[in-house]
Amino acid sequence: MSARYLTNFDTNHLSSEEVDVLIVGSGIAGLYAAYKAARSGAQVLVLTKRTVEDTCTERAQGGIAAAIGETDSPLLHFEDTLAAGADLCDPEAVEILVSEGPECVGELVHLGTRFDRMGSEWALGREGAHSQNRILHASGDATGAEIQRVLSLQVREEQKIPVLERHFVVDLLVREGRCFGLLAYDEARHRLCVFWSNVVIMASGGAGQLYAHTTNPEVVTGDGIAAAYRAGADVMDLEFVQFHPTALAARDGCSFLISEAVRGEGGILRNARGERFMVEYHPAAELAPRDVVTRGILSEMESTGQSLVYLDVTHLPPELVHSRFPNITRTCLSLGIDPAKEGIPVAPAAHYFMGGIKTDLQGATSIRGLYACGEVACAGVHGANRLASNSLLDGLVFGSRIVERVLRENPYRSNVKRLSGFLNRSLEPGKPVNPMILRLELQKMMLEQVGPLRTADGLSRALSFFDGQRYLTGVCAEEPSSFEIRNLITVGELVTGAALARTESRGGHYRQDYPCRLEHWRKHIIFRRH
Length: 530
Ligand code: SIN
Hints:
Number of strands: 21
CATH superfamily of the domain at 246-350: Succinate dehydrogenase/fumarate reductase flavoprotein, catalytic domain
Helix content: 25-40%
Bound molecules: succinic acid
Strand content: 15-25%
CATH topology of the domain at 246-350: Flavocytochrome C3, Chain A, domain 1
CATH architecture of the domain at 246-350: Alpha-Beta Complex
Largest sheet: 7 strands, mixed
Number of helices: 14
């Protein structure tokens, strides 16, 4: 469900700017692409919805996977990624990820990223479904913040790339299958504006805020996926939503992540009766794939009648827990939980979208001039279930490949301004909804009906919910919370439609009425508007 545009506008009457490369989003994928493009001599502009640091990258704890250990190899990393992806990864994309990843990580180090070391060696951690210790981390459990710090510094201070904060990308300007730029809303000036460019790189993240419980920050509302879909881009694999098994469950709705690395260091999951249970569900126990651990937890929650389980590290040396996970320890202590003495209350929360805007192996979408990288994109690298700590790597590798491709093929400058004249007057004025109330309703419904456990009945109920919102498509949205709720509804309906269509279980998509993986479903669901 979506109209072509969210709002009425006439580009002839809006302030406008033209750049060589326009990047949407300031997480690892967007900033790394910005850095690479600027180094190639392009004039780059980054738009971000709130502040530069308000990203999933900033919150990433566990780390970044790279096959750099002595006993490791890209081949082992390839095999682990494929296995986690539940037979739906594109092997060529995975090959690129694991073989080009180490060099990109090396560049992060070169730029000043301080990954943790043990003596002269990298301190490589272990996470679920990895056969090797291959997770680089920084300040114990603050890896994303360190990468964000380095890339933000590079982009703003070293490369002098302008970054416009509080600029909400409303819609893409596409004509005859080519993207010429975008319409944005400048929150400080309360006005629409236009950015023209031959190269638009979408790196705006996933849609975790579709769910009542999520590890994602509030800004992650599926805006890039929805805008690309409205503009006619193919979107793929949206039914595959990864729930992280262990988000802190101390407060209602609190979504602070308790990194998988805690289980990697030996953390044990116990139910409310104090019993270790993951050994009953999978040979890898706590380090089983995330979907398996999530379902194990949900089943224990049901059998004990509690809405949480506990992650127990009390058997580990307290110094190890404190030094390896300072951020987690600090947060727990601030809530009166001492991980050295008691189990950390945890429950699953929406964490990562494996699907997104369909791209080729150089990040090109089905719309010429529009590229996508990071969580907003779907190059098939994660299949039906992403391997832990492959997401930061994905952002680097495919962000960089876009710039290489653009350099090869795309003359940056052109008079795209001459093509001005995009106009929409089709939407009715009016404010028929309270976006915040609708958002809460949507998030609750998505968690209940389109969460980690799905059935045809529940998914059909979800589709009826979306039918009930159809009237919104004819109404003009005028500010960010109205844009966001429409984007969430668009993406939510796509997720639900794909989940209903896929009558099997695979990776992050689990159908209680179709619990097996089926060979004839080893294919992708792709949506295109009209
Ligand atoms: C974590 O630290 O558990 C999250 C890592 C990831 O999602 O890859």
